[in-house]
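Sharing a chain and its predicted structure for anyone who wants a worked example. Both blocks are below, sequence first, tokens second.
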Amino acid sequence: MAMLRMKEEGLLDCKLKPFSHILAASLFTALSQTPAITDLATTERLAALAPPGALLVTESGITGPADVRRLEASGARAMLVGESLMRQADVTQAVRDLMS
């Protein structure tokens, strides 16, 4: 399995082409390259360009159930969530809330 991390459209083609035959997952970060701005639309744009069958993983900027639903709708099937959970007093409940 290969996981390739992309932050902008221009990198997608040059990073994916050599690995298209083994690609199982792509990590699309909502954090753009320059300037460093977190925007879920980055994941949505990159997901639209992913090859068929790629397992899309996204990270950055996921703060609640609405974000999870939005990213699922764009094709993301896994999400890395960190900071927004670590800021919660009850992390277990925060995870449950994200999954609701």
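Comments welcome. The chain has one domain: 2-99.
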